[in-house]
């Protein structure tokens, strides 16, 4: 299986490098948030920490938006008969989703690094170790969102269905992270719902890490939650591939 | 050790349908494909050809029945089967994000060839299929005919003993079709067994060493194209008569000693005869003496369509 993952991963990377523009497009949206929205927060939160508090949110945002879109690539591959053709060979079923998901993870971490560079240029100062650990968290989020997207795509097997599922997921996930406005402003019931959103904890953990507050309980919680969920969605995605081609 | 590369018995596939009757895509198919031959599955769309091939290629589990493919049990050792077969679906399965060559190399490497062997094998296949010039272009820029040839090259990357080709020439123009037929014959000459599905009569006739005609999930006839056509008869005389005369004309035809069988209706009565050239004048005389009117008459050699017609009562052209 490891050999299959390695071969397919190299194949995925080659495919991505042939179409590098799409990789850049993935960062455009969070860059716009960073440039056009973060300055607004400066007015709300004087003291210059607005950018530092917003950047982890922007990282989670790319994990969500570019992660959820990878399923379309899987559907294109399904339609072209590529998955079926591979499945008629002795290839590991797990490798068929794990390899692209690892590629997505690497792409996401690259995009995150780009975004961090931009934030630094805009004057953000954050704890370097905290930033490094946040990238680990981002990698786990990448695995989670990519495998979730593959599982949804292979279950729905329909581009329109996937688009609707994505739209339905995206809005509550985004609003309930506290990226736009702090959840502290929310009434109790809304905070309770947000606590069930893994992305909310990821944003909280990212903020604590950026501030260098390593004892914050949200950090282990976010890491454990994200990794645990990522393993579940990975399993779901592998099961969907198996169902597709027993 | 048998020389059969596919030995299928009683293959069935039933798909459950929510709030409805289950769909019986394949209702009991027996197939014997010999090593190194081109075997055709001929039938209209929806006859169960693709489902049969997908079962034999380990892609979907049969509801009932069993099969040995390339020397291994389909259900117990699917992995062993997968190592020995190639599969080219109607969609082709060429990954458009990379070049055609990379597709072939990846397929070879996933089958265990080393990087160097895979590169050599890819170069060899691309040469055979005249794809060397376009091998490094992004696959999405290829023409339909080139894509088909790449799909075939990908399926052959690991030198399978048996390759499944599902509707390999659907959508190709006549020139590319003829070239593709040549390539399939080349495979057989190289010792690879080919199991192909088609709804084209001429394709089955021209390519298949032996074939099975399938309809509604069952094999309705099997044999070499020649055997099948002989079984129907040598020649077919088709007559068009006014609707009112159809009944008496049919009876008259059946009464002639040289007519072996009668089929069809007023729109096209068919008389199957051994030797059409001598039967035609005799038949015309008989019709004249019987006082019947004929609007049109024609004589042709029996085709696989006549075999299908006789087995199912429909023409393959209409059934598709």
TrEMBL record, chain A:
Chief place where the protein resides: membrane
Species classification: Bacteria, Bacillati, Actinomycetota, Actinomycetes, Streptosporangiales
PROSITE patterns for this protein: ABC_TM2 (PS51012)
Listed GO CC annotations: ATP-binding cassette (ABC) transporter complex
Residue ranges of every copy of the ABC transmembrane type-2 domain listed in the record: 21-244
Transmembrane domains' residue ranges: 21-42, 54-75, 105-124, 130-155, 167-190, 219-238
Keywords: Antibiotic resistance, Cell membrane, Membrane, Transmembrane, Transmembrane helix, Transport
Species, as recorded: Bailinhaonella thermotolerans
Keyword Kinase on entry: no
Protein name: Transport permease protein
Topological category with respect to the lipid bilayer: Multi-pass membrane protein
Similarity section: Belongs to the ABC-2 integral membrane protein family.
GO biological process, one term: response to antibiotic
